[in-house]
Amino acid sequence: MEKIIFTAKPRILCVDDEPLNLKLFEAMLEPRGYEVIKAENGREAQERIAEHRIDLVLLDVMMPGIDGFEVCRRIKEDEKYRNIPVIMITSLKSKGDRIKGIKAGAEDFISKPIDHGEVLARVNMLLKMKALSDRLNFAYININNLTAFGEEVINTFNPITFDFLSKTDNIVNQIIRQTSDRFEKPQIVIVGLPGNGSDWLWYQYESILGKLQRNLLKIGIHKSLDVHRDNRRVDFYNSADLKKSEVLSFIKRFEPASSIKVTNMVCYLSHELCILALNYGRDLTAYDASVLNSLVMQSLFLKSLSTQIKEVEDAFAYTIYALARAAESNDEDTGNHIIRVGKYCSLIAKQIGMSEKFTNAIRLQAQMHDVGKIHTPPEILKKPAKLTLEEFDEMKRHPINGAKIVGDHARLTIAKTIALTHHERWDGSGYPCKLKGEQIPIEGRILNIADQYDALRNKRVYKPAYDHETTRRIITEGDGRTMPHHFDPQVLAAFKETTSQFEEVYEKLRD
Ligand SMILES: [Fe+2]
Ligand SMILES: [Fe+2]
After folding, report:
1. pTM: predicted TM-score of the whole model, two decimal places
2. What is the average pLDDT across 143-171?
3. Nearest 10 degrees: CA dihedral of 250, 255, 256, 260?
């Protein structure tokens, strides 16, 4: 794809084997605001085109070596240079030469001796056409970029980890001038985001050596900012209209004020985001405002989606917690037991290399492990003495009852498995199904050790509360009642690795 460049000074390559003619072109074109690059033969012409950005070629036909027709043909063959207009200059008026020139791809012809007025008129006209075709090309590139950006944004969208500031970095990366010769893009972008309270945070972006830099700006005068009070709007200002914009005086409040000089500007202003794109290397049109607007719209859409999904996730987490709390109202395990167990489970899950998704899910859903106790008579749950065999059998129904209560929702499969299997033991001595080894799902194996740790740390009718060290020893060495072979060796090893974190969780969340 050709690189499209706009500058205030169009650059014209003049190719002629006669140095005097080159001087004449220079004298004619430079005072009219054109920059002239000279080449004395076809080979040099090709070199100059490769070295410089060229907007138009004035090409002598009769040259020793590679002649003008051949130079023109080579320019038009190359996709990179094809849209540079070529005017051929010939002293021959023969129809054959013009046909040869058209076949080589030349846009126009001028006959020697040249007429200054004619040259200037044709140059001006072709440069206008070139600028239009460049704009069209630029718009095409922009549409492609916007589509690619949208695709990437959708593919990488994660509502939970969505971070609006880093998404804003991506937007700026799309629009900012990356190298010194991309004049169609803004040189500086300023972004404002609502901070805590009524203050906004303002960042200045600039690409330095191809790397995007973001700096927090200081505001000199702390008075209310009016720019984002209005409804959402997008405006553009060329240098002549800049003074009309209240944004310009706002920019002057940044410290040090003199560091930002504005030549033109597109601004997106709303109560949730402001973007000021400054110093495009060419005059602005409504098109530039639309490009910025469309990028911002994509991002704001994702922001609002993320907020809504996070709210639903919070409500889901709260409902799980509330249900788990309701179930333990008659139990001796109250207070923060269920929250601590969730945290221990996530420590082990992380330690044994489970995914982040699983680790987060088990932290939440482990809270429901004893939800089946809602059916266990309170006199059994609170009996201040050893349970009879019948009472213990009644107690042992809570895993199955729990699995029934949680039910079959796809979002609660871990909770259901945990409710059913958290009293199974690795050696097959657990309940309700006497599952053994890997027959017990991993979430059940993890919960078993987490629940045991917390039960040992707390006072029970049949035992005192143990300190961390005693609890660790009982789990890793056994006390006759709790034995190391009750636990999955991999889970036990993970417990040993994370034991200090278990202690931290307990201390932080003790009742
Ligand atoms: Fe239980
Ligand atoms: Fe428990």
Report:
1. 0.66
2. 83
3. -40
